[in-house]
Specification:
With 279 residues, the chain is an alpha+beta fold. It folds into two domains: 2-90, no CATH class; 99-278, no CATH class. Helix content is 50%, strand content 15%. The protein has ten helices and nine strands. The chain has helices at 2-19, 25-47, 52-70, 75-90, 124-134, 138-144, 175-189, 198-203, 222-231, 264-278; strands at 97-99, 105-111, 114-119, 152-155, 160-163, 211-216, 236-240, 243-247, 261-262. The chain has a four-stranded antiparallel β-sheet with strand order 1-2-3-9. α2 packs antiparallel against α3 and α3 (52-70) runs antiparallel to α4.
Length: 279
């Protein structure tokens, strides 16, 4: 019986393969060869000077093709192709503007040889989300923002902060609030955001901005050093109308905006993620 049944089993398997339910080894090799050729051709087309959103669409197609190939080839071959994909990503031109998942625009800033993405001024709605998510109390919030420009209020009914001007710029925060927001946004977006350095604030924006920077205050004048020592603590650099000013981290000033920066690599990833939702 065993000898009699064996040909029947082989016949069924071969019939299934011919019917297309099971790919033959030759078919798999052809499909792999076609996918590899497609992958290489897309990368060549990218090298030949695709521009704007088109280059990112081509990269997404190459990335999708790579994911299919990765399931078939060896680990060493997969790593080789992944390195090619990484080099192609590095050559993508950074968009002039991207928007993260929180709806905060990030604009390309070029300062000499350095390139970063710097955000527009953070609106009240995002700062409110930060306060509520972190469970900040009303008393603590009052210490974070300059009182005369504060338009964020506590809603007893909702037991949460709210604002009547969600899209207007949040103003008057201290250094601790600015760094806290940057850390919170990094966690929410899974992208690292920091406060901008002095050069980016002064030279990387189309208009003068008043905002905190990531740099500690460096004061060489003896009188200012004595003043700093008298107050104690570490001073941080605030840019006011294009000028650097040393301030205590808990100090709040009217008219201070909040901006964050991220790397070119992160900005391109944010754009790719958004573009995938549009395709």
């Amino acid at each position: 019986m065993k000898i009699f049944n064996c040909p029947k089993f082989v016949y069924v398997v071969l019939l299934a393969a011919s019917a297309g339910t099971l790919p033959s080894p030759a078919q798999s090799e052809i499909e792999l060869s076609d996918s590899l050729l497609l992958f290489e051709n897309i990368l060549k087309d990218l090298e030949m000077g695709a521009t704007g959103g088109e280059q990112y669409k081509m990269f997404i197609r190459a990335e999708s093709t790579y994911k299919d190939i990765k399931k078939i080839v060896s680990d060493s071959e997969s790593r080789k192709l992944h390195r090619k994909l990484g080099r192609a990503f590095q050559k993508l031109s950074p968009p002039e503007m991207v928007e993260n998942e929180s709806g905060l625009p990030l604009r390309l800033a070029i300062i000499g040889a350095k390139q970063v993405y710097i955000s527009d001024a953070v609106p009240n709605r995002l700062f409110v989300a930060f306060l509520n998510d972190k469970g900040v109390t009303f008393d603590v919030m009052k210490a974070l923002l300059f009182p005369d420009t504060r338009v964020i209020h506590w809603d007893n009914t909702e037991s949460a902060f709210t604002t009547t001007q969600p899209d207007q710029t949040v103003l008057g925060m201290n250094y601790s609030a600015a760094t806290g927001f940057a850390a919170w946004l990094s966690k929410v977006e899974h992208v690292t955001y920091l406060l901008p350095d002095i050069a980016t604030v002064i030279h990387g924006l189309t208009r003068p901005a008043n905002c905190w920077t990531s740099e500690p205050w460096q004061e060489k004048r003896i009188t200012r050093q004595e003043s700093r020592d008298m107050f104690g603590g570490n001073f941080h650099t605030l840019v006011l109308a294009g000028e650097e000013v040393g301030c205590l981290p808990e100090a709040c000033y009217a008219g201070i905006e909040l901006r964050v920066v991220t790397t070119i690599k992160n900005g391109k990833k944010v754009y790719l993620k958004w573009l995938k939702t549009q395709l």
